[in-house]
Amino acid sequence: MEKLKVSIVGASGYTGGELLRLLLFHPNAEVKQVTSESYTGKFVYKVHPNLRKATQLKFSSVSELEECDVLFLCLPHKSSQNKIDDFMKLAPKIIDLSADFRLKDGAEYKKWYGHDHARPDLLDKFVYGIPELHREEMKKANYISSAGCNATASILGLYPLYKEGLVEEDRTVIEVKVGSSEGGNKANEGSHHPERSNVVRSYMPTRHRHTAEIIQELSFGKNITVHFSATAIDLVRGLLATCHLFLKENLEEKDIWKIYRKYYSDEPFIRIVKENEGIYRFPEPKLLAGTNYCDIGFKKDELSNRLVVISAIDNLMKGAAGQALQAFNIMNGFDEKTGLEFPGLHPI
Amino acid sequence: MEKLKVSIVGASGYTGGELLRLLLFHPNAEVKQVTSESYTGKFVYKVHPNLRKATQLKFSSVSELEECDVLFLCLPHKSSQNKIDDFMKLAPKIIDLSADFRLKDGAEYKKWYGHDHARPDLLDKFVYGIPELHREEMKKANYISSAGCNATASILGLYPLYKEGLVEEDRTVIEVKVGSSEGGNKANEGSHHPERSNVVRSYMPTRHRHTAEIIQELSFGKNITVHFSATAIDLVRGLLATCHLFLKENLEEKDIWKIYRKYYSDEPFIRIVKENEGIYRFPEPKLLAGTNYCDIGFKKDELSNRLVVISAIDNLMKGAAGQALQAFNIMNGFDEKTGLEFPGLHPI
Amino acid sequence: MEKLKVSIVGASGYTGGELLRLLLFHPNAEVKQVTSESYTGKFVYKVHPNLRKATQLKFSSVSELEECDVLFLCLPHKSSQNKIDDFMKLAPKIIDLSADFRLKDGAEYKKWYGHDHARPDLLDKFVYGIPELHREEMKKANYISSAGCNATASILGLYPLYKEGLVEEDRTVIEVKVGSSEGGNKANEGSHHPERSNVVRSYMPTRHRHTAEIIQELSFGKNITVHFSATAIDLVRGLLATCHLFLKENLEEKDIWKIYRKYYSDEPFIRIVKENEGIYRFPEPKLLAGTNYCDIGFKKDELSNRLVVISAIDNLMKGAAGQALQAFNIMNGFDEKTGLEFPGLHPI
Amino acid sequence: MEKLKVSIVGASGYTGGELLRLLLFHPNAEVKQVTSESYTGKFVYKVHPNLRKATQLKFSSVSELEECDVLFLCLPHKSSQNKIDDFMKLAPKIIDLSADFRLKDGAEYKKWYGHDHARPDLLDKFVYGIPELHREEMKKANYISSAGCNATASILGLYPLYKEGLVEEDRTVIEVKVGSSEGGNKANEGSHHPERSNVVRSYMPTRHRHTAEIIQELSFGKNITVHFSATAIDLVRGLLATCHLFLKENLEEKDIWKIYRKYYSDEPFIRIVKENEGIYRFPEPKLLAGTNYCDIGFKKDELSNRLVVISAIDNLMKGAAGQALQAFNIMNGFDEKTGLEFPGLHPI
């Protein structure tokens, strides 16, 4: 079978680099171009040293982009929406990894992002990029907007319970703990190693933009509220969402097991992790580094109607590049797991 | 002035070692004996290598304990309550750092600890050991029960708002992130470095025993619920409590500032940390290593009545040995800050 | 093509687990049995949680072992030599990952290991397991003894220069920095997270047993001395060897480049890493986690005849399981890179 | 007793901040001014958040400096030598923490720093700032040049053996492992947390400038060579020097003990750490965070004349601010330990 020609716009960042790594080993894809304005003409392994000996590809400028089958956009916020017409001319299929086309409602976008969307007319052309919720749409889609990392972990952890209408609408509290790679590859005062090491840093206690995606995907016609906070910890890769939700009716853990099985038992990248013994009784992001898994566990509070749902991902994989590749596979009719088989390391 | 003679029962653990370090530099205390059954006869610096050159003290057996002015108990769970009569004969004043005498209600004790208390008759003899809430009682007390680390951070963060009756009674969610020293100095499968490094481990999503202390101290006659979870992270020392509470009335941040000032402006070990710029905008436990501070910050959610209160301590200091020494100072009429002046390191 | 039937003896440790991970994804191997006496009957993913959903295999007892094509031994020190006859009956080909059959000389074995070898008659039956030095022998071998991790990094870094006779025989100093996974999966007082975190621990300043392998492989008939030290750092996976050697003649860096190219330009798992700019100018073990690469760099001291050679590996991969699989591929005529294509993650 | 008035030039960096922390708690010093051009007019606790509640001092510009008793210079390389006349007018005593006045020989300075010294006439006015070697000179000195961190650990580890003439002159190899705070407080691409975490980075395998100080202090009239390398590890604070030296005569460990005792038994900040059992058998920098100790241990190789000397410090304390304060105490006739009593934390 002929390989699909794919290109990555904005490939010098962490998400772009991760996507490139995956695509270089994908049997049905041929990486044609990868762009970076800062590194045009340089070998990609100078920026992504894990790709030494894996490729002799060099960065191009976005102005040099040629037509391809699928175009991945890994650009900074607002760049995709401003240049989307150019990109649509270059490729029939686009997967955007930025936040630009995640929200379906321009007013919500403005509420959370603080400015008008440049192309609200296109918002409904993009399928929201979590396959476990939108697989059938993806199969027919030309445009996919990859989900945020915090949103992915939260939504996948909570989806079955919200879909079943079991959750009190205004009480859910989500606390995400996340590593430093989420902040991208630009050094700043706060990312300086002596200041960033050993931190437990409340970097976004309220008003995190990913909240909007979570609400969008979990509402199902209801008016829901989600109370979201994010804390940065001393980790490079990995994200754990601890979700405290309150059940409308009295469910036991075996009932909850059944619900998760109903939704996820056939999902290749979801694992329910809930052990009674051992060290890894609940999801643990370090086991997921480099994998596309979302591990989900839960614990019912015996003293109240609270259910704690724990959800872990690699923020650069299931939270970004891996999930984008999963969408790519679905969109193009490949086995969904292609190029995403790496099981993770232990210990790490 | 003559120094008080003090001894520490159970001084080979992390809490006992930290307390010993503090007492060795306390101008009004003379450490008479420190006990350890496993290390009887050995130099304490063999177990606490930071005390090399600081002391030539050796461990004694508990059976060799002599009378002293103040006895500190740093024993495993249930040991204090079982041997309390013996200890009371040895010293007129006791500070217990275990959980044995924290709860005032034997029924609550049984609910959370799963067994009957050995000496419920003594529960009301002990003052609960957070000075900011019980300073006046401490001045007259002979027996103090030092508070749990998770409870200290949570209670201090929430106290002014609960005391003022501003918090919805059943909605507060507390998420504590904590380092490995909280688990004590005994190696186990889960504390093995390759398994414990890089973790974001939900070790107690529900039913943490410290919840009982938090409820006890924040109830003020009302029936309140607190939804508590604890997550272990890759840190040795330090604890951050992220408390999500829901305000009964619409308060702005400046109103909340006033309330915290009212309660804490004269407190030597509480700092309100809430900056608009810079890296350290909210409390950060790494800055507190070795200090007795509890740093508290907050952020009001503009989109709901949620207030996020962030509270940081060193779990071995304000969460254990430091707070016990603060109580010791109060109990004996010393300046409360004596021996607790270390300001912390930056960077670390 | 029919798959080879392989079994792993001692598969509950880190090396055995890593090997199992690799073999599960190897297209020419079928994992038949994996043994563990402590976990007999349990799912392997209970011990190796990264293998959840990857396999439903359970541990067997060594007494249940059946015949297979290739047997991997991941046993503690001395176990292989004591039971080697049993294992030889079970499989025509054996790859031993312990230190038991690495040294060719029983006297040297006794000098470094402190006891007589149980089966000195077999020492010359095993090929020393570094393919870059012994590939041709491996192609014909039935028995391979996988090299030590510290030895692998040191030998590969130094081999071309010693082979060319360029190094002063008695002056080389090797300083290895290594992560905690090297110590295996058994928790002990020294591996307890609060004690093992943040360390720079001189755990073996002299007399490290791997020194014997290094001397054996680099002697080429001469009488050489290697001054080896090992320091444990706060890392789980990864090893960096800094080798200080003294050149017999005045070579410039371009001459040294040529020598490394001569030996390694066709090697699939060796990369010469020596950049003039950027962050990753020299080999960096964190980029190698999960890969089979050995990255080698060097720097000539302008002020003396010292050459600093820097060599990095993942101690569980090129330092253990990966290199064993590479040997397996060679021994069985497969493409040497099969199952070892993972390029590593960045950032991590 | 009246307090000495002291000021710090360049107090916004890590060394300046650490020195300020120490001076604020020094009973014989009053901090008059601290300068920073970037932060003039701002509270120092905005930059050094550990000093919240400890001081209300604000940064001044260097142009606002007033006369004082002792002036500390914590400026970037070359600034001290260029402005030294101005500083000498402001204070009769100066302690310079930069590298500007460490070397006694202008030619050596040029060899290692690559440019002519601006004021070679002043090089012999400064006492090299390691008290253990130059205490008597310090007592009479007006100008002290504080030693480099790598040099301090190396020199203190090796001094007794070199002074006794026991070391082969051209063979010593020193490998220093160091944390990120050594690089200062300016963020750069290489200090970005995702890139700097988990590293074992050979950042200076040859030609480290501190080599010149080591040679200067250990020569004792002989022509010696020291082979120095530095590796950055994932640690914020702390430095371990592993020194491999070769003895001219056959000494046993008990002989070496005697030599170290002869030189260091009365030293308040040197501890010989060499245990036969336990976890902390050799010096460990993490135990020294915040302390002024230099811990020294050693191990004789039974198979050769190599002696491995292991030396640990906190690079910001004994490697910078602490040692400068020790010099300040000596220079001014105070008890040498004043303000430096902090024993360090365990665990950390």
UniProtKB/TrEMBL annotation, chains A, B, C, D:
Keyword presence, NADP: yes
Superkingdom to which the source organism belongs: Bacteria
Any Pfam family hit: Semialdhyde_dhC_1
PROSITE patterns: ARGC (PS01224)
Gene Ontology biological process terms in this record: L-arginine biosynthetic process; lysine biosynthetic process
Keywords: Amino-acid biosynthesis, Cytoplasm, Lysine biosynthesis, NADP, Oxidoreductase
InterPro entries: AGPR, AGPR_AS, AGPR_dimerisation_dom, AGPR_type-1, LysY, NAD(P)-bd_dom_sf, Semialdehyde_DH_NAD-bd
Active site: C149
Name this protein carries in UniProt: N-acetyl-gamma-glutamyl-phosphate reductase
Organism of derivation: Melioribacter roseus (strain DSM 23840 / JCM 17771 / VKM B-2668 / P3M-2)
Lineage of producing organism: Bacteria, Pseudomonadati, Ignavibacteriota, Ignavibacteria, Ignavibacteriales
